[in-house]
Design brief:
By secondary structure, the chain is mainly alpha-helical. The chain contains 11 helices and 6 strands.
Length: 424
């Protein structure tokens, strides 16, 4: 769902910098080393083909062994191509592969919030009462900790997932460092900075997670833990949005008041997320039965959270109406309608969970909805500006907003013309 919300406006050809990448030696010592490693793993030689393998097999052992060699080479060829493609997409990323890697970072950052919410709402927050090991005597979720085995493995599984998320974050950072858009051959410092935030933030999250456990789920630290995760999602979404834009100066596509209103929606959604952590830290689903809570009236903080939701609804209604009557870009309109629909559904889920006694499953749906609303709200300001198309080696990889869906090609002198036509 995250990928659909982020990527549906984009239509890009499957493009690799420098051509298809087949039949050409990979550039750079790091990329060549990665391809050789892939060849070793697939038991094949770099640049070998099925016919070459069969000839070698025939010279060694006759036609029957040559046939076996042909079969082995043909079976390993798809794996070899997949390894080479993966290495190229990270170490020599095209604009398309960079965008996809950034999207993986968004999905990973959002996913860890949802699994963390599952830990808290299932009362598994103290399933592993120690840190960084699960217990004082075991790294993994074994032995007796006072919690059930299910609670131990829910908490320990979330810690393991953090390691997988870290791998994705490192891949995002490496790809952003190696990314060279257009013909300049230069990396984009803003993309590198946004990408480096992700592994650095995950390390910080691991430390804060340890503080959360060692303070026995102090509600203040739990709130900080959640809000830092929301900030990492914001960095990942911003990185993804920047990979869909060119490097030209930003050109506004909507009136200043509408752009200000979109920024206000983002700010109020952030306040709503903070209020939501207070509601959870005050109520019965604070992470475990014996942990401390905020010393606040549950009804009062819940009402405040609902009031913020109504404020967001009014702001989004005003924004959608303004975009509609000012004939804003279709992409911005679609995002506005999606955001409005999600907020209405979120409100219905929120009231239902409150009047049904806060069932944990429905609260988890509510948290998931809040994360998705945060992602869509962050995308809106980027839909109200244009920084030109993303290009790689002169090939257009995205459409400038508001051009009526017409593809645009970049000529060597940066003249812009319809695809297939002359420049200017």
């Amino acid at each position: 769902m995250v990928g659909t919300l982020l990527s549906y406006p984009q239509r890009s050809p499957n493009h690799v910098i420098g051509g298809s990448g087949q039949g050409r030696a990979p550039r750079g010592p790091v990329l060549r080393l990665a391809v050789k490693l892939g060849c070793v793993l697939t038991d094949s030689a770099p640049g070998s083909s099925a016919s070459g393998a069969s000839q070698g097999g025939a010279s060694r052992g006759g036609a029957s062994r040559g046939g076996a060699s042909r079969g082995g080479a043909s079976q390993s060829a798809p794996v070899r191509r997949a390894v080479r493609s993966l290495a190229e997409s990270v170490l020599a990323p095209s604009a398309v592969s960079m965008r996809r890697i950034a999207l993986a970072g968004v999905a990973a950052s959002a996913g860890i919030i949802m699994t963390g919410a599952a830990v808290r709402l299932s009362q598994s927050g103290l399933g592993c009462p120690d840190w960084p090991a699960c217990t004082a005597h075991s790294i993994v979720a074994s032995g007796t900790t006072g919690s059930s085995l299910l609670h131990r493995w829910i908490e320990f599984g979330n810690r393991l997932l953090t390691g997988a998320i870290m791998v994705i974050a490192v891949v995002v950072a490496v790809a952003a460092w190696r990314f060279r858009p257009g013909d300049s051959g230069r990396r984009q410092p803003d993309l590198v900075a946004l990408a480096l935030i992700q592994p650095a933030g995950i390390v910080a999250q691991a430390v804060i997670g340890g503080v959360v456990v060692l303070t026995r789920l102090d509600p203040v630290w739990v709130s900080v833990h959640f809000l830092l995760s929301a900030a990492l999602v914001a960095a990942a979404v911003t990185l993804y949005a920047r990979t869909t834009e060119g490097i030209a100066p930003a050109r506004p596509l909507a009136r200043p008041d509408l752009r200000l209103l979109a920024a206000a929606v983002v700010a109020v959604v952030a306040v709503m997320l903070a209020a939501g952590t207070v509601v959870t830290g005050t109520g019965p689903l604070a992470g475990a039965r014996s942990v401390a809570r905020y010393h606040l009236p549950l009804g009062g903080v819940t009402q405040l959270h609902a009031d913020i939701g109504w404020l967001i609804t009014g702001l989004v209604l005003a924004l959608v109406a303004g975009l509609r009557f000012s004939r804003a870009p279709r992409r911005a309109m679609r995002l506005g309608w999606v955001l409005l629909g999600m907020i209405l559904v979120q409100g219905a889920v929120g009231y239902t969970q409150y009047f049904t006694g806060l069932p944990a499953g429905l609260v988890w749906v509510h948290v998931t909805g809040a994360v998705l609303i945060w992602i869509v709200a962050l995308r809106l300001p980027f839909a109200l500006r244009d920084r030109g198309p993303v290009t790689a080696r002169g090939a257009v990889l995205t459409e400038p907003p508001g051009d009526g869906g017409r593809a645009v090609a970049m000529t060597p002198d940066d003249g812009r013309a319809p695809a297939g036509g002359p420049a200017g």
